[in-house]
Write a structure and sequence with these properties.
The chain has 145 residues and is of the alpha/beta class. It has one domain: Ribose 5-phosphate Isomerase B, Chain: A, CATH 3.40.1400.10. Strands 2-1-3-5-4 form a five-stranded parallel β-sheet, with helices on both faces. The longest helix is centred in the N-terminal third of the chain and has 14 residues.
Length: 145
């Protein structure tokens, strides 16, 4: 199950993502927003982060105008590794190396064709499970140096 959330700046692109996931038979939960009317991205980032942390959803996708604010908000939650990706290589690398559990994109930055390739890559790429990457994730999540 994929948790989806966006603000008004990501609303149009999120409609494309939802249609794409539906076509592929991938289940999702939509945590809003439900229109292009101005709203505050932290609301939706928090909803998606909590759904991923609770296990209600396996991963999440967040979209705002640039992807920056929504990813910053999601990353405030311990255990969330939200990656802002505007290219396929980054989506693949963040899954393999960082075991990212939320993808963020900018609806005003990336077009729908590329966005759907990024989504597919993010959802299909496994974590490498390499010791060095496990170590780095542990270091991200703790105060040790």
């Amino acid at each position: 199950m994929i948790a989806l959330g966006c603000d008004h700046g990501g609303f149009e692109l999120m409609q494309e993502v939802k249609a794409h996931l539906t076509q592929k038979g991938i289940e999702f939960m939509d945590f809003g927003t439900d229109s292009a009317e101005a709203t505050d991205y932290p609301i939706y980032a928090k909803r998606v982060a909590r759904a991923v942390l609770s296990g209600q959803c396996d991963r999440g996708i967040l979209i705002c105008g640039t992807g920056i604010g929504i990813s910053i908000t999601a990353n405030r939650f311990k255990g969330i590794r939200c990656a802002l990706c505007h290219d396929v290589f980054s989506a693949e690398a963040t899954r393999q190396h960082n075991d990212a559990n939320i993808l963020a994109m900018g609806g005003r930055v990336v077009g729908p064709g590329l966005a759907l390739m990024i989504v597919d890559t993010f959802l299909s790429t496994p974590f490498s499970n390499a010791t060095r990457h496990q170590n780095r994730i542990r270091l991200m999540e703790t105060d040790e140096i």
